[in-house]
Amino acid sequence: MFEIPLSALGLQIFMGFTLGMIFVLLAVGLSLIFGMLTVVNFAHGAFYMWGAYAGLLAMNYMGNFWLALVIVPIVVGGVGMLLERFAVRRLYGLNPDYPLLLTFGFSLVMIEIVRIIWGTADHPFSSPPALQGPINLGVFFFPSYWLFVIVVTIVVLLLLWILLKKTNIGLIIRAGTRDSLMVRVCGIDISKIWLLVFGMGTGIAGLAGILAAPMRGVYPEMGISMLVECFVVVVVGGMGSLVGAIYSGIILGVVVSFTTLIYPPMANIVIFLVMAVILLIRPSGLFGEKGLLE
Amino acid sequence: MEILRTENLTKNFGGLTAVNRVNFVLEEGRLQSIIGPNGAGKSTFFKMISGEHVPSSGKIWFKGEDITGLSQHEISHKGIATSYQITNIFPKLTTFENVRIAVQSRKTTFNFWTRADRHDDLNEKTIRILETVGLMEKKDFLACNLPHGDQRHLEIAIALATDPILLLLDEPTAGLNPVETVETMELIKKISKGLSVILVEHKMKVIMNISETITVLHDGQVIAVGTPEEIQENETVRRVYLGGKRE
Amino acid sequence: MEKTSIVKRILIWASNHPLWMIILFFLIFPFIMPYKALATLILINGLFSLGFNILYGYTGLLSFGHAAYFGLGAYSVGILLSRFQTSIWTALLFSLIVSGVGSLIIGFFCLRRRGIYFALLNLAFAQMLYFIAFQWVSLTGGEVGLRNIPTPALQLPGFSIDIYSPLRFYYFTFIFVTIALIVLKRILDSPFGRVLEAIRENENRARAIGYHTNQVKWLSYIISGVFSGLAGGLYTLYMHFVGIEYLYWTTSGMVVMMTLLGGAGTFFGPFIGAGVYLYLEDIISIYTKHWMIFVGSIFFLCVLMFPEGIWGRVKSRIDRLKVS
What we know:
The complex is a heterotrimer. Chain A contains eleven helices and two strands; from the N terminus they run ααααββααααααα.
């Protein structure tokens, strides 16, 4: 068990890192929605799943992965905005359980729709030819697709960072309150910001879905296991903290990856053990609750 | 005898110091008021005494015992009760139950086998308190359906129901019209007999008649302590608070 | 002078004597239902929802992980009957103990956080149990589950009864559910039950007036887990089978939906919710296996438009009748 060659080890860490990036994308979207709207989007995993299936559709009709990569988040985010505009919005100000229950119900419908159209079996999703095959990074060979996922995630995080830190809209979002007198006084229609935040959050989830599809396959339940894992990431990292989500996403990705290598039966269970330990010794997560971002 | 003493009590929230080295003493059986503009730290001060906030530094003594950092429920059982500035009742319970559940806290929590409404001793005490605050007629109303003035009285009733030795009243007349304000102050005078009371208020007129001693808080710090007359004469207080500010 | 109609008087009496109403109703229930198995199913799931409702409707704590306790109870009975050939009594007792211990431990962890965290932490722990059961094939049968669970006769002093015909099993379940109902009603009407409601309405104030709310919540959680476990155990006896899906999040989701549809925080609600949910599933699945789209949508609309649930709505109408 400990005679693992360095290259396999490196590969596993790299895979974990990549997996972690997917966790990070999901956790960031979830935190975005929660931070501003105080809504936990139980359907977040379902949006991720729809991203993967939308990718399937896009590939079927257009055959162009790059185009799909752009269109899918927009479409999925659009659905998210519809959900916010016509349903979630009515529950603001009430008991925070309600949006959770609402989005839970919605996720059930989302999953069933996919089952009706595609059935319950796994669907394969191949990465674009340009990204197939390994890249030689000196010490070992890595699947270039994984590198691509890492790059895309970093780009998205950077764009998000710019939006949040450098624009007025970002300022409003970071203020962390759903409805601010200040914002209305400035003449900005706060409900458009709600739409934007929900759309961005779910759109990023959809992006994560299509990115993950070649790595993890496409099946109806992929969302729920992702949601739970993503939630563990957020608990471990600290709900309000973007930095926490990034660190813990990567750490947990690596941990899962390693466990799969060393002792596969524990692979699904190990993240819960990490979560239990964190809950015991540091209930507010590694990076505490410092406000929405940093 | 001193009933409450705070020594250099301080509370920091990140970069903001809400309460800054406050020293406060209350003699047993007295009613003392704290005034100060919004943000002066009055509510935070109360919350440290009641255990809702843990002080960043400093100490609190109650009846000679150090209660700094104890939990809310422990402090409640020591004999300290709070009535809140923002109404903090049990919305979907009846007025009667709001008070009864507070009365029950002195008797039992983990009793699973008797019927709650058959505890006559608790029911009688609840009725007495409701009569004191004038809510007997509305005892079967859901608390969320009470008008604001009655809800403020219910606030006080819930605090009274726990048999406190020290009563912390945080702006009991918040949101009340002048008539209701006078009524509430009369009520407070009535219930303060035999208790030690700290009254936080915003409206100067209200506390001038009722307090023996007034502490003035500004930006988390004590800037003056004295009788109502002394406070009115005090230059610093005038400048900071009385001069042209609210009622 | 208006004469109150018989129907109104019955409704008011029912609302004031929920326990008797339920017992009377369920006494004749199997004869109203299209088939007896459905009646039993509703009874068992009603018990499950009742347990869940203690935590959600009465204490105000939403958990998405109650499949854990249902599953623990179910597997306890399944394992004890198949591998250790115990009596039904022992098996059911074990389901109570195991789900009790499970809820004690998991509750401890989950209660370290509040609100929505709490709801999803429960989900996380339940999923963990699911994966453990999945892997631990020697104990649980893994993905396949435990099949052909023995069906011993029920041992009573002096004689034994075979309880497995549909009607007999219904009344066997009915006895347990009745006992559970009496115990729960007792708890909810007690001083402890009042503290639960105070916590639901305003936990901060409940603490401020002297209640050790963490302890109370923990105990409520355990009670909720134990009754959910009993339901799981009874379900195993009914199905002669324990499946890994008993521990899956869909089971947690189902009990949430049933309770909400029926009316959280009411005594009847859970049973009505279970009835509606199972009846809908039964009827719709005749036409399509994708019945979840309909049930899910109904639940979605329920949260949006009548979160107080069916019985919650009816109850407020009845309360208005009482005042007039």
